[in-house]
Fold this sequence. Notes:
The complex is a heterodimer of chains A (449) and B (634).
Chain A: E1 3-12, E2 17-26, H1 32-42, E3 62-65, E4 68-71, E5 85-89, E6 96-98, E7 101-102, H2 105-113, H3 132-142, H4 149-153, H5 155-158, H6 170-181, H7 190-196, H8 207-211, H9 218-234, H10 237-242, H11 248-258, H12 262-275, H13 280-292, H14 296-308, H15 314-333, H16 339-356, H17 364-373, H18 377-390, H19 394-410, H20 414-427, H21 434-446
Parallel strand pairs in A: 1-5
Antiparallel strand pairs in A: 1-2, 3-4, 3-5, 6-7
Helix pairs in contact in A: 3-6, 6-9, 7-9, 11-12, 11-13, 12-13, 13-14, 14-15, 15-16, 15-17, 16-17, 17-18, 17-19, 18-19, 19-20, 19-21
Chain B: E1 4-8, E2 11-14, H1 18-29, E3 34-37, E4 54-55, H2 67-77, H3 84-103, E5 118-119, E6 129-130, H4 136-159, E7 166-169, E8 172-179, E9 188-195, E10 201-205, E11 208-211, H5 232-239, E12 244-245, E13 250-257, H6 271-274, E14 278-280, H7 304-310, H8 326-338, E15 348-351, H9 358-364, H10 366-376, E16 385-394, E17 397-398, E18 412-414, H11 431-454, H12 463-474, H13 485-499, H14 506-523, H15 536-560, H16 578-581, E19 583-590, E20 593-600, H17 606-609, H18 614-620, H19 623-626
Parallel strand pairs in B: 1-10, 2-3, 2-11, 3-7, 11-18
Antiparallel strand pairs in B: 4-6, 5-6, 8-9, 9-10, 12-17, 12-19, 13-16, 14-15, 15-16, 19-20
The complex binds flavin-adenine dinucleotide, iron/sulfur cluster (SF4) (2 copies) and FE2/S2 (inorganic) cluster.
Amino acid sequence: MGYKARFRVWRGDDTDGGLEDFSVEVNEGEVVLDVIHRLQATQTPDLAVRWNCKAGKCGSCSAEINGQPRLLCMTRMSTFTEEQVVTVTPLRTFPVIKDLVTDVSFNYQKALEVPAFAPPVGVAPGEYRMQQTDVERSQEFRKCIECFLCQDTCHVIRDHEDNKEAFAGPRFFIRLAELDMHPLDSMDRKRRSQEQHGLGMCNITKCCTEVCPEGIKITDNAIIPMKERVVDTMYDPVVWLGSRIPRRSAMAANRALDSGDAAAAEEHARSRLRDKPSDAAALGALQDALVAQGRFVEASDVTRTKLEHAGRGRGARQRAAADHAWALLCAAEAGQIDLDRYDDEITATLQQAQRLASIGTVLAGTHALHHLVHGRLAEAAEHSREALRWDRSRQTRADDLVTLAEALTGLGNRPEGESAMAESLTLWPANPRAESARSNMHEMGLQPR
Amino acid sequence: MSEIERHRYDVVVIGAGGAGLRAAIEARMQGKRTAIVCKSLFGKAHTVMAEGGAAAAMGNVNPNDNWQVHFRDTMRGGKFLNHWRMAELHAKEAPDRVWELESYGALFDRTKDGKISQRNFGGHEYPRLAHVGDRTGLEMIRTLQQKIVSLQQEDQRSHGDAQAMIRVFAETTITSLLKDGDQSSGRISGAVGYTRENGTFVVFEAPAVVLATGGIGKSFKVTSNSWEYTGDGHALAMKAGATLLNMEFVQFHPTGMVWPPSVKGILVTESVRGDGGVLRNSEDKRFMFDYVPAVFRKQYAETEEEADGWYDDPGSNRRPPELLPRDEVARAINSEVKEGRGSPSGGVFLDIASRLPADAIRKKLPSMYHQFKELADVDITKEPMEVGPTCHYVMGGVEVDPDTGASVVPGLFAAGECSGGMHGSNRLGGNSLSDLLVFGRRAGLGASQYVEALGAARPAVSERDVESARRTAEAPFDGDGGENPYTIHADLQQTMNDLVGIIRKREEIEEALSRLEELKSRAKRIGVQGDKIFNPGWHLAIDLSNMLIVSECVARAALIREESRGGHTRDDFPDMSDEWRKVNLVCRPEGDGVRVDKQPLSTMPPELLSLFDRDELSKYMTEDELSILPEGKA
Ligand SMILES: Cc1cc2nc3c(=O)[nH]c(=O)nc-3n(C[C@H](O)[C@H](O)[C@H](O)COP(=O)(O)OP(=O)(O)OC[C@H]3O[C@@H](n4cnc5c(N)ncnc54)[C@H](O)[C@@H]3O)c2cc1C
Ligand code: SF4
Ligand code: SF4
Ligand code: FES
């Protein structure tokens, strides 16, 4: 019942390396780690790999199998066909030491930055009393085997070395949540997690939850509740709400836009702005009217003003930055601005938005578009897929589908590109990006790959 | 010549499992500069795999429990070969050590009144194991790891350097201990090792070393142990002139996975039985009722009805025989399979599916559910598991002073699985995790006090010894390449499994010893490929020399002990002997081999003896020994 499998294993060290092909025996019931061990015993005695328990309990054997972050000891060979090539590579987010072994010291550094459990004062050991229902929430997070697959997959640090400094990562968000929800921990950790551990940089893409071999609901049970608590303690609720209540001044403009008359909406908004040039609501309405007409450059002038006047409220600043980055990116996509000239501004704004991001804010779609205008098509596809998994509104979904459609077409996958575009248009037929996207797709389709 | 890195510490702890971490915490709290050295990453030591729980007589579930009852159970489990003082300290101190973990942030499962919950386990009279589902070891290691991080945070605040007082050298393997004299004299002066990452040699200058390196299971083919369990601490101690005792006692856990072949040996926690699981043979019979030995007959049920009644009403029913100590259950499974009543893959059936609702199984045994689902495609809430014995734990280890963990070599301490005496001939489930805490702390304290007493006069490191340690470790690169370390390892595992396994006899052990000689000479011809950067072939070649010497200890002692007791079963001497009970076998190095001597066991004081029935004692002890008891008493 054994067969010969085709394996491609990354071999090398911090200076050089590449994929090597092997043909190796596989027997019934085996996992990928068994096959790696067979390679060691029979073909490559110095092939480096970490492992300990071989039962999914220690979190040592993390690597990427066909690009997916996985435990080698918990990936059964029966999940592949006999013909399929199995590609095993080291974790991408951490520097390689040799072959499948990476330097994960980043995680131990982050662990050191999370203040430890603060025992309750005046309660002697042996006197701790806690109800099962109260410890269960933290117990879920203590199931963590520190495989660091979630850290590996998180896009905030996966491709952004410079984010590592400020970002603790999902493994340590659950540690913070665990301590925060510990019935007897006596320290307040909410404000800290936003300010010092980079919780705000997480835009809830849920990729971490998907790869966690322990099935810990990292996003739903730790990150989102933490963000909500952070919001509760960091924002004055009145300020927070106030920034969301539409002013009467802009209502007319919005009504006009709803009825489909972008030009009328623009006029309303401009007249309002003549009295009060920095009226946030009117700026917003003008922005929408311009976007609706596909006039992205002018829209970006408005969003820039909006950002300049966004004040100190975190939520408002975050939305303004996100809107501004988006407007500039749409302009770049439509060929209305010179990307080289604006890219610094785009990147800085996007980073600002990312830093300020809080619950309900999704930037994966914006990141996707950013990759797209730079021609990084695979990343654009990956990020837009990520965004789509999390999109709530029809329009954002439509937008992310447009990005995906262009990326796929550029990657040579025309049929899927077309179908993404079609789906997008049924969601939002009047999407102002559609026209330029179509022509991009057309051009990319013509270019030989 | 390659670069050598140097460090100075007061105490060097080798091993980052429960014992090592607890020892290090203690040494640091005593104000000693402490290094922790371990072969894997921080937090991955073997302790992480422990499932069932930590035994401590807190009496949270059954208030009748106390240290005396725990002491009795431990001695019975070890068939009275335990060092009584270790069993006593362990039973007395375990509750404090478990409670202390809560103050470090551990979150155990709770009872209704909010205390730490306790579960039933083989050989324990009352529910006694503090646990977190079936991942207690993970909780323990993470808690201790986080405690160390918290001490480093304190040091960061007070010294401006998190590593000022306690530092972890992960993925660093110690290959030699250093002394200021030769093997038979002198005191510890440090240790030498290499880093896995790039093969750099590291010298630790330190007057005290605590060994906490765990077990030896990787010398056996079917084992629940990880690659780290190559008996390094056992071998290091012996080479430095310390003694090992009880090496013939190897625990085969009754329930390891048997299918698929690649996972054979992976542990199925005893909690499955503690929570109601039963063993059946191919004829669907609960065969354990046929295997209750005379010494335990009083405490175990005779009918299924009584056994099943025990879970809810332990007051009026006796325990199910599935919860006999491990050696008994392992031997029973072995006989059933031998007599043709085994399961298709050569084990027996362990059934929890028909005993608990699916939800309860998933809740109480989440990792078992996950493990079988992922690795064997078996849903344990619907089907029985197939299980069989697997090499699990070594009772034997470094001979230590119970109170301080000191070995016979000044400056050398040991705790945890690599130390010997506490568990006698057989360890009870759950008694290891508590052992790690109790004796880890004591060894850390013992080492600190030793350093204190030394004052400024520290033993010197000999450069010649450092150089020779380095040469020995690098030797496999100069081999002619005639032998592959992986092949020798596989041959060793097969030899130990087949010939010094769960059931032993003279001819087979002798055969094993002669094969070990062959393997030793083949090992000298090992040649490794590649360079020193994270090279598993090289690492294995070094570990092999330890496995070979430790395997020889096991085989030699097994040959000499002519009786059956706990983790040592001789087909040719099937009975337990009162005379042998008074004897420890002690291993020392001799040439490039091992010498084994008999040594009398220390005698239990009357106040502890009197905790047992005279009747019961007479099953283990000679009349002579019992004469110290006041007439009529006990
Ligand atoms: C699957 C499984 C389940 C178990 N369940 C339970 C249970 O429920 N209850 C219970 O009480 N017991 C249980 N046990 C037993 C218990 O887990 C072990 O006996 C115990 O964890 C050993 O701890 P330790 O501190 O002695 O060593 P370990 O935790 O094994 O640590 C050994 C350390 O020494 C280091 N080391 C070894 N050699 C060297 C060297 N040469 N240089 C540097 N470092 C070295 C290793 O890297 C490691 O850090 C279980 C065991 C297994 C395998
Ligand atoms: S939800 Fe996404 S961004 Fe947030 S931590 Fe997880 S992977 Fe990273
Ligand atoms: S949270 Fe999950 S994925 Fe992340 S380190 Fe822990 S076990 Fe691994
Ligand atoms: S080896 Fe422990 S998780 Fe894979």
